[in-house]
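User: Please fill in residues for this 281-position structure.
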C-alpha cells in the first residue's frame, strides 16, 4: 500500500525521506517534488526498478528516463568525459533547470533502456529532492504522470495517475511551475540545443557556443517545444537522435550513492545492460 508524507511538516519530512530512501533501495518507486514538476523515481542501478518506472508510466525501452544527481561529483562519475563546455554550463546553471546529454561511462553496470550510449543528467534546484539524492545516490527520474497525460504539479496529481504503483509519495507542496528543463547535447564538438525550457537560448549563449537547428527554437518568445515534460525528459519520445536517459557512481558514499567500480550496490545488476545497449558487463 502506498504511503504519502506531508513534507511541509518537519516530523513527516524526516519519516518520509527515510521511507522513500528505504523503498528506493528495495527497488520500489517513489514520487518526489523537483524544481519543475513532480518526478517518478527509481534506483538508476536497478534494472527491475527502472523497468517498473517505465511500466508505471506506460513507456517502453525506447524512452529511457533521465538521471537526477545530488552532487556534481556524482554526475561526473556517470559520464565518459565532462568537457570544458559541460563544466562551464554546470558552474553557471546547476543546481537548476538544465539537463545535459553526455556519453555515459561505459564501465557502469546499469540499464536505463535504449540510450544509444548517452545519459541525460540534471541536478535539481529543490532542497527536498537534493536531500534524498544525497542519501540514495543518482536516481532515474521521469515526470510523475502516465504517458500522454499532463505532468503532475502536486503529489495528489501524481497519486491520482500512478496510484499503488508507487510505494512512497513525498508531498512538498505545489511545484512552482510546469516549464521543462532545457536540454543541451554535449556529445558533439559544439553544444547543441535539443529542447527549449526554463533556461533561455540567450542565457546559454552567454556561457557557451550553442548550435540550434530549428528557426522556431531561436525565438525565445515562442512556446516551449510541444510534447515535452518538465522533469528533463522528452515526453514519450527522444530528444533529437539522443534518447534522454536520465544520474551515480563515484565511491558509493552516502553523498554520492555509487560504487567506485561502477557496480550497483550488492554487485552486478542481473539482466542489466550497458548504457550503449550492449550486454551487461
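Assistant: Residues filled in for all 281 positions:
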Amino acid at each position: 500500500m502506498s504511503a504519502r508524507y506531508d513534507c511541509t511538516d518537519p516530523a513527516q519530512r524526516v519519516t518520509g525521506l527515510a521511507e522513500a530512501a528505504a523503498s528506493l533501495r528495495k527497488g520500489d518507486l517513489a514520487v518526489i517534488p523537483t524544481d519543475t514538476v513532480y518526478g517518478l523515481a527509481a534506483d538508476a542501478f536497478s534494472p527491475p526498478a527502472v523497468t517498473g518506472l517505465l511500466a508505471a508510466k506506460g513507456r517502453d525501452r525506447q524512452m529511457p528516463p533521465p538521471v537526477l544527481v545530488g552532487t556534481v561529483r556524482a554526475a561526473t562519475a556517470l559520464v565518459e568525459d565532462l568537457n570544458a563546455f559541460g563544466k562551464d554550463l554546470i558552474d553557471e546553471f546547476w543546481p537548476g533547470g538544465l539537463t545535459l546529454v553526455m556519453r555515459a561511462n561505459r564501465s557502469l553496470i546499469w540499464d536505463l533502456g535504449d540510450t544509444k550510449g548517452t545519459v541525460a543528467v540534471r541536478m535539481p534546484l529543490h532542497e527536498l529532492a537534493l536531500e534524498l539524492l544525497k542519501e540514495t545516490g543518482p536516481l532515474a527520474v521521469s515526470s510523475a504522470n502516465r504517458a500522454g497525460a499532463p505532468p503532475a504539479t502536486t503529489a495528489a496529481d501524481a497519486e491520482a495517475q500512478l496510484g499503488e504503483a508507487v510505494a512512497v509519495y513525498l508531498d512538498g507542496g505545489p511545484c512552482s511551475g510546469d516549464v521543462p528543463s532545457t536540454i543541451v547535447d554535449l556529445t558533439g564538438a559544439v553544444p547543441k540545443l535539443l529542447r527549449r525550457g526554463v533556461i533561455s537560448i540567450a542565457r546559454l549563449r552567454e556561457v557557451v557556443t550553442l548550435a540550434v537547428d530549428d528557426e522556431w527554437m531561436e525565438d525565445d518568445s515562442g512556446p516551449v517545444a510541444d510534447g515535452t515534460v518538465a522533469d528533463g525528459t522528452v515526453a514519450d519520445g527522444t530528444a533529437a537522435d539522443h534518447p534522454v536517459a536520465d544520474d551515480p557512481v563515484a565511491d558509493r558514499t552516502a553523498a554520492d550513492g555509487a560504487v567506485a567500480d561502477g557496480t550497483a550496490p550488492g554487485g552486478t545488476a542481473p539482466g542489466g545492460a550497458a548504457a550503449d545497449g550492449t550486454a551487461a558487463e
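For context: Confidence is low (pLDDT under 50) at residues 221-281.
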